Amino acid sequence: MADDVFILGITMTKFGKHPDKDAIDLASEAAMAAIADGGVSMRDMGILAFGNLIGNATGQALQKQIGQTGIPVYNVANACATGATALRTVVMAIKAGEVDMGLAVGVEKLAGAGLLGARDRKPDGNTWTPAGRFGAVTGTDGRIGTETMPGVFAQVGMEYGHKYGGATFELFAKISEKNHAHSTLNPLAAYTKRMTLDEIMNDLMISYPNTRPMCSANCDGAAAAVLVSGTKLKTLSLEQQRRAVKISASVLTSDPWQEACQVLPDVNTLTKAAAKKAYEQAGVGPSDLNLVELHDCFATAELVHYDNLGLCEEGGAVDFFNSGATWRDGSTPVNVSGGLESKGHPIAATGIANVWEVCHHLRGEAGPRQIEGAKVGLAHVIGLGSACGIHILEKSAV
Amino acid sequence: MTDVTTQIPMVDYLVLDPQPHLVANQCTSCGARYFDRRNACAGCFGTSFTKADVPTDGEVRSFTIVTFAAPGVPVPFVSAIVDCHGTSVRGNLINVEPDPATVSLGMKVRLATYSLGVDDTGAEAIGFGFEPA
């Protein structure tokens, strides 16, 4: 049987604007802090998995600043699941028995990036000429639906509303209100301002029903984690063992074919499949989770993932939210970090930063936002295209 | 102004004659429908496809009103997913106010076309959308 895998050290940088730091500066800061947090050295790392989706930074460039030891580097890209993919790459290497310790890093410079998913429309040529897989004579974004992320995920949430009812503009705005309220306790979040429901609903409309504060915040940031095998962990100090967090499930899925999935991305089926597998691997169920960090790239996305992750019964996400369950004092606190809407979404860092948030609580180190007695947590990301990464984390038994 | 000599659909899955309608590539093994050029079926990996006419009426299964888009894309517009009797289609809702008070989930719509303009050769590009039925 494959060895267990633990997080030995983990950190995230402050998310926000870092005009004086490039991607490698941020990645170095996170990586060195994660290594220090684990009480080990770059010399102990057997593998480096590195993600930087929008930029062109590489793990090798990071090594040149923090330590070139000749270990294999995997530069990974998996949309918004890039960070989770880097983490899982190290998990697989340890499970395979190839290494007993490894480093996963995700970094993005995204402050001021604007609208993602959409490209400027080019002026039409002098003749209509069919091109591409659809034989289109002109750009289709804006003429055959939308390709912007706020628009695509608005439709994801509205589709849930059509299927089950109750998903109003106000409901989605209330989800955002929760996450912005949570962010006030997170000093590393890009935005920490509490916003009223009125402020959220009356802010700039981006793509109905998502207003600006209901969209994930583009920002700079990095996160890194040092992973260790269970066998190796036993040789380390009691303090290291006490702070280590068990990765009791590490799952990555892509979207299986479903009717309509090539018309509107289906972020549901692959999340449901990943969640099912993760709960089986970890031997826990949704009711065992003390906190969840899920991929609220837009307020409309958070709603559907309550259902996809099995936090509520099928079709029950609206009632579940309205019950107060997902506020930090509720039965299943969701996005106590402030979520992507306020903490920010430096894409490749996100899938490690959400694991850091959960670890922070499991270690009892979350300060004023600590979820008391947290023992089990789940971190989820979706990369459109699609990829879903889920990690279930458990407090050390030591 | 150039005289219109021919009409050309905006995408090749829009067929203008005898009446405008959408045509899908349908997998002969499992019936999955696609609008793009195919290498194989994503559902069953089959490589044989036939053309299938998609019903021109349907129901709005999801929508968003886009008020912020890439430079060059006029806003606001309504993007929607329309369920045409079991085949899902992406398109704009047209001939309707882009307002949540006038667009609703479940509303009945039908295919409609409009001109995108005439090029130097006299060819007029025809786009499609869905309008309230």
How would you explain this protein's 3D organization?
The complex is a heterodimer of chains A (398) and B (133). By secondary structure, chain A is of the alpha/beta class. Chain A folds into 2 domains: 5-113 and 219-247, Peroxisomal Thiolase, Chain A, domain 1; 149-188 and 249-394, Thiolase/Chalcone synthase (Peroxisomal Thiolase, Chain A, domain 1). Chain A has helices spanning 23-38, 59-66, 82-95, 149-164, 169-183, 197-201, 230-233, 238-243, 269-282, 299-308, 317-322, 339-342, 347-362, and strands at residues 5-12, 48-51, 73-76, 101-108, 205-208, 210-211, 221-229, 245-254, 291-293, 376-383, 387-394. The longest helix of chain A is centred in the first third of the chain and has 16 residues, at 23-38. In chain A, helix 1 crosses helix 2 and helix 4 packs across helix 10. The radius of gyration of chain A is 20 Å and the shape is globular. In chain A, the strands form 2 sheets. Chain A has a 9-stranded mixed β-sheet with strand order 3-2-4-7-1-8-11-10-9, with helices on both faces. In chain A, strands 5-6 form a two-stranded antiparallel sheet. With 133 residues, chain B is an all-beta fold. Chain B has one domain. In chain B, 0% of the residues lie in helices and 50% in strands. Chain B is built from no helices and 10 strands. Chain B has strands spanning 6-9, 14-15, 21-27, 33-34, 49-54, 57-66, 77-84, 87-93, 108-118, 123-132. Chain B starts with 5 loop residues before the first strand and ends with a strand. Chains A and B meet through helix 4 and strand 5 of A and strand 4, strand 6, strand 7, strand 8 and strand 10 of B. Strand 5 of chain A pairs antiparallel with strand 6 of chain B.
